[in-house]
Design goal:
The structure is a single chain. The strands form three sheets. A ten-stranded antiparallel sheet has the order 6-7-8-9-5-10-14-13-12-11. It has a three-stranded mixed sheet with strand order 3-4-15, with no helix packed on it. The chain starts with 5 loop residues before the first helix and ends in a 40-residue tail after the last helix. Helix 12 crosses helix 13. About 17% of the residues have low confidence. 32% of the residues lie in helices and 16% in strands. It folds into three domains: 97 residues, no CATH class; 235 residues, no CATH class; 59 residues, no CATH class. The chain has 14 helices and 15 strands. By secondary structure, it is of the alpha+beta class.
Length: 471
């Protein structure tokens, strides 16, 4: 049998890697590293042994490595259209790849690759030093195993009601409000769902790998008691079983529009400041609203795809709330764990992860965003003014006639809703707080069910005329 020459082997490897080389423009060594991570081509015996014995993929940081040309510039590459593989997972010699497509070029800068418990390769969120608290958390979804609540309760829980009640008890310690109302509806692929607080979010449970989903909305983030972020961080890192943050939104506000606007964001996109690769494919954008002739209803600019692990939006929030002359602009970045592992530290230092989202966000590193209560008060002021204008325009003529006919007091009594708990849907988010709304279910008085020993052994017997018969 004729031995295989080394030159022939090298030529075969070169032919197999050539499609990726043409698309990526990276060094041969970088392509080899990536091919080993994503199983493009057969690994050598030494590499296979090392990969099999390793508990996780090696972490890498892109800045220094990029300069040394030791790693590719794109962190994730989709191999759905790569060279065909035979039954032994070897590249077929001569097979050509139509194209190599990056999952999200705009998503990754200086990243670290990690291996999840399910064997999936994901990245950690980029973190950049920030001198100011330039953003606030505006939404968070996280999942925990149902065993978490058995541990906190100190006993084995059985029914769904027991799990939800214990979750309500613990969440009240974190947010200041617990689970209040049973919706009885499916949500986010879970079999059942409950309302969290006074419309502050939802809790989903049932038929999802024995996990519970906790959803805290923007209203819940603004209304929760001070310090809920640190308490949530400690709960996820020290108490919860199999915790995972599946989504988190970070928001930055500029009331005066002195440095932030949708036009500024669009200019940043044109200059390539939303792409980490120099000259790389820019993320997709979408313009919503009347950009050519602004009508005062507000404009929105979205960066990226909603289904990806990172999505950004800029919009004129003041105009959205009803003030056509407002310059208030908001920037929101939505992170999801689609291809990314969201570090719980984002709860303690959201600004570092916000600044690291895109290269253009370095402008926010030394800019403080207004506090939550200040944002809530500003939005309430704009909404109240707009509500007064709407009431005056639609019902002002009737009210003027009623005042002339019945007087002020009787007119108020006639047109005021009798339900003291009723609020306009538009104003309710501003009038709800952590201590408002229904009583949490773990504090509700349960109906007393008599013990079975208190029931009669046999049913009473009555005669034909209704009198009780003697037994």
């Amino acid at each position: 049998m004729r031995p295989v020459r080394n030159s022939l082997i090298k030529s075969r490897h070169k032919e197999a890697f050539s499609p990726y080389a043409e698309a990526s423009g990276c060094s041969t060594q970088a392509r080899s590293v990536k091919s080993q991570i994503y199983s493009v081509g057969k690994l050598s015996a030494a590499s296979a042994d090392r990969t099999a014995s390793a508990t996780a993929l090696p972490e890498r940081i892109g800045v220094e490595a990029e300069k040394a040309r030791k790693v590719p510039q794109i962190a994730h590459v989709s191999a759905t259209e790569c060279c065909s593989l035979n039954n032994m997972e070897e590249n077929l010699v001569g097979a050509k790849s139509e194209y190599w497509e990056s999952v999200c070029d705009e998503d990754f800068g200086d990243v670290k690759l990690v291996l999840t418990g399910k064997g999936e390769t994901k990245t950690l969120l980029v973190r950049v030093p920030s001198a100011a608290q330039c953003c606030v958390i505006d939404w968070i979804n996280c999942t925990v195993s149902e065993d978490t609540w058995s541990n906190t309760a100190g006993r084995t829980l059985i029914t769904d009601d027991e799990y939800v009640e214990e979750a309500s008890r613990q969440l009240e310690k974190i947010f200041g409000f617990g689970v209040t109302t049973h919706r009885g509806q499916k949500l986010n692929f879970y079999a059942d769902s409950w309302v969290l607080g006074d419309g502050m979010g939802f809790v989903c449970f049932g038929k999802q790998n024995r996990t519970m989903l906790i959803m805290l909305s923007g209203q819940g983030c603004a209304s929760a008691t001070i310090g809920w972020e640190r308490r949530m961080y400690e709960f996820l890192t020290t108490v919860a079983v199999r915790p995972s943050i599946s989504r988190i939104d970070l928001a930055h506000d500029d009331f005066d529009g002195s440095y932030l606007s949708v036009d500024w964001a669009y200019q940043q996109w044109k200059e390539g400041n939303f792409s980490f690769r120099q000259g790389g494919r820019p993320p997709e954008i979408q313009k919503l609203g009347n950009w050519d002739r602004p009508s005062g209803k507000g404009r929105t600019l979205t960066i990226g795809q909603r289904s990806s692990s990172k999505f950004c939006r800029f919009y004129e929030k003041g105009k959205k709330e009803g003030d056509k002359e407002s310059s208030w602009c908001r920037c929101e970045v939505e992170f999801k764990n689609t291809n990314t592992v969201i570090n719980p530290e984002v709860l303690l230092n959201p600004g570092k992860f916000f600044v690291g989202a895109y290269p253009g966000f370095s402008a926010f590193a030394k800019t403080d965003t207004p506090a939550r209560m200040e944002v809530k008060a500003r939005a309430l002021h704009i909404t109240m003014d707009d509500s007064v204008e709407i009431t005056k325009r639609q019902f002002g003529k009737y009210i003027r006639v009623f005042r002339a006919t019945y007087g002020d007091q009787e007119t108020l009594a006639l047109i005021t809703n009798a339900d003291e708990e009723a609020f306009p849907k538009r104003l309710k988010p501003f009038l709800s707080f952590h201590d408002s709304g229904p009583v949490p279910i773990h504090k509700q008085i349960k109906p007393v069910v008599p013990d079975f020993t208190q029931f009669p052994i046999s049913p009473p017997f009555f005669g034909l005329n209704g009198e009780r018969a003697r037994l």
